[in-house]
Amino acid sequence: MVELLQRARAVFHFFFRTLDLPLLGALCLLMAAGLAVLHSVDGPVHAQAMRYGAGLAALWGLSRLPVVELRAWSPWIYTLSLLPLLAVYVVGTGKYGQRWLNLGVFYLQPSELLKLSLPMMMAWYLHKQPLPPRPRAVLTAAVLIGGPAVLILLQPNLGTATLVTASGVFALLLAGLRWWWMAVALGGLSVAAPLAWFGLLRQYQKDRVLTFLYPENDPLGTGWNIIQSKIAIGSGGMHGKGWGQGTQATLDFLPEYTTDFAFSVLAEEFGWVGVAVVLSLFLFVTARCLWIASQSRCGYSRLLVGTTGLVFFVYVLVNGGMISGLLPVVGVPMPLISYGGTSAVSLLASFGLVMAARQHQPVHST
What we know:
Helices cover about 70% and strands about 0% of the residues. The protein is mainly alpha-helical.
């Protein structure tokens, strides 16, 4: 009996020694909520479960890698992630442009890879620089961020481009970027916004912005999505209509109810109580990442983990704003709730990097 317990302990130690169990538990609860929403609307539950399995395998594998190796590989991973981003312009496909690569077995969205590789690259570059970053370092970082962001924007994919840019900006802020740099950046954006409106944005993207401002102007056209989403959220009330009892999705009033508006389904079926529980899990994941970052003795780990947690929070903030009409609809899914392959795997893989930083601290802090 004692030998059996020792073997069980050894097996448990082998599989779980590099995992942060509180963080993993919160992620598993969020995945369970996502599968429950998909099942209630007869969505592709098995396909999403397989993607979660692949993501958890990536999380487990990355959590076992020493931080010094991840740090050394970061420039190569960043460079390699740019290749499929360029290839999508040659052989890409998509509903609104060239966003996906058909690999036969599955479709790959190259822009999602940058959500993993750009924070690694920024942490690798900035951890070696004097803090706060000097102008030359800031400009170099801007090139590292802006290059892939522009490529993603031209696909066109405004939502992912925004998140990729945010990940780089968060790394700079965590590295001690002075706030006057942000004032300069905001001034540049205010100048570039009219140019982007007339030169870069497609008509459907402009429609999304106009719909955000005036959804009632076209309630049966461009305003339909957000109006139906608000109805779904409001009709859930405090306790919801019950699992599988929502009408907005099952009667096809709510569009994209497995992807962009999956959280609207959750709000309708589980009410504000269910929304509060899931939002608490999101906040816990973010707080756990920031706590791990604060405990790290390695500058690379602090920047990487802190950026990962903040970008995860922005995911939640943007999708929550989209479905409630507080932000334009930019095609950002709710993490681990919305259906998606590349996004789910890349997101879980990023938490593998967080757990690697938690478990494997370099001998010499930097």
